[in-house]
Design brief:
Elements (H helix, E strand, L loop, with lengths): L5 H13 L1 H7 L1 H22 L8 H18 L4 H9 L3 H15 L5 H24 L24 H17 L5 H17 L2 H16 L6 H21 L1 H14 L6 H6 L4 H13 L10 H4 L11 H7 L8 H35 L2 H13 L12 H21 L1
Helix pairs in contact: 1-6, 1-7, 2-3, 3-6, 4-5, 4-17, 6-19, 7-8, 7-9, 8-9, 8-10, 8-18, 8-19, 9-10, 9-11, 10-18, 11-12, 14-16, 14-17, 17-18, 17-19, 18-19
């Protein structure tokens, strides 16, 4: 049996962290197993070396308070069985953050292994997306269930853009942190074009937001280079939306229909396909403003919501009932109430404030990329996946891990 050196053994958790994009691509079970393995590695070391001080972190205490609130919320949930797993096992994410921070700091902030694996996986996905765009199927012969959108290896699940915006900018930031490099600009263009062609409208907007502010605050670029960069991206945006009929349908025609006859912002929102979900979530929030109806209960509680005041009550009732309200703020308000909402938003606001303060002094592009992802996820009104599902939550809390790690390093 080959001998495994101590240094190689220490790198195993880094390889495991590097497998996150691949496991998310494979499916929920694979990513959950990976989280469990990383946490077991972490806990075994903490117990073995008695490093219990690692739990004495202010941010960790805050997340424990959030978790305890979710446990409390579980016992007043309208459906205990549905809420149980999401409430109880939320604890895995605070421990995952501790685990990632511990293993990266253990080898003097070693990122090489992690970002090389992330970059390899995401490069294959981007190549595959271009392949699927050109031929109608990906390199494995998988077709998208919606012909106007791309799905790559995820098949029937139309959420590949969420995976891209969660990992691509931290990868770029790692390889070009503190460097002025034309290759960075070229690679971001390749990424930006496919992000638009995927045709996930909300994620394309969020991804564009991240790219825009990343380039804006990239201090190595002078005003001239920033101006050229923004003009280039605007030209690409207009060109793709104008000349690609599928993207034009999603970004122009559908939005134009929503603003016809009445151009007010309120009318625009209420004509959206997502408005019935939003309206249902807000109706559930009004039923229990303080504590909500309970995690994962939207899918059953929505059946009891009626819209007598809606111009088309049957339409609103029929299409307002789904697995979640498709909007982060409304999901938090309807399922865990105003108390839970304020707990989460206070934590996010503190980290955003802290990140901006630290970035102004450190010019840490890795920190910037992840905090921009966090901000993009909390933009009001834009549709989103369920915050508490394994796929979305894993991507979110990995970026949260990066934020906390980089804040600690720079302080």
């Amino acid at each position: 049996m080959p001998h495994i050196s101590f240094s190689n053994y220490n790198k195993i958790p880094l390889y495991l962290i590097g497998f996150f994009p691949l496991c998310l691509l494979i499916g929920t079970f694979a990513s959950e197993v990976l989280i469990l393995i990383i946490i077991l590695f972490f806990l075994s070391e903490i117990i073995r070396y008695k490093k219990f001080d690692i739990f004495k972190k202010n941010w960790f205490y805050f997340l424990i308070i959030i978790w305890l609130y979710l446990i409390f919320n579980l016992f007043i949930s309208s459906n205990f069985d549905l809420s149980f797993s999401r409430a109880v096992f939320f604890i895995r994410f605070p421990i995952l953050i501790l685990s990632i921070n511990y293993f990266i700091k253990k080898i003097e902030y070693a990122y090489d292994i992690i970002f090389k694996l992330w970059a390899l996986t995401m490069s294959i996905i981007i190549f595959d997306l271009y392949f699927q765009y050109i031929f109608g199927y990906n390199i494995l012969g998988i077709e998208s269930p919606w012909l106007t959108r791309l799905s790559s290896f995820m098949g029937d699940e139309l959420k590949i853009a969420h995976l891209l915006i969660g990992f691509m900018m931290p990868i770029f930031a790692f390889y070009f942190n503190g460097k002025k490099n034309k290759l960075l600009f070229f690679l971001i263009i390749i990424y930006f074009v496919i992000l638009l062609l995927i045709n996930e409208r909300s994620n394309a907007i969020k991804g564009s937001f991240i790219i825009f502010f990343f380039l804006l605050f990239f201090k190595q670029n002078n005003i001239k280079h920033k101006f050229i960069g923004f003009i280039t991206f605007i030209i690409i945006l207009i060109s793709v939306i104008t000349f690609n009929k599928d993207t034009n349908q999603r970004f122009f025609y559908e939005l134009n229909i929503m603003r016809s006859n009445d151009s007010t912002f309120k009318s625009f929102i209420t004509k959206s396909n997502y408005w019935p979900h939003y309206a249902t979530g807000l109706a559930l929030y009004k039923k229990n403003k303080l504590f909500g109806t309970g995690l994962k209960t939207f899918r059953v509680e929505c059946k009891a919501v009626t819209f007598n005041s809606h111009p088309n009550p049957k339409y609103a009732s029929l299409y307002g009932c789904t697995t979640h309200p498709h909007q982060l703020h409304i999901e938090l308000l309807s399922e865990i109430g105003l108390v839970g909402y304020l707990l989460f938003m206070s934590f996010f606001a503190y980290l955003i404030y802290k990140s901006i303060h630290v970035y102004r002094r450190s010019n840490d592009l890795i920190l910037l990329s992840s905090v921009l992802f966090l901000i993009s996820q909390v933009i009001p009104l834009l549709p989103s996946g369920s915050f508490f599902t394994s796929f979305s939550a894993t991507i979110f809390w990995i970026n949260m891990s990066i934020i906390i790690l980089r804040i600690n390093k720079n302080e």
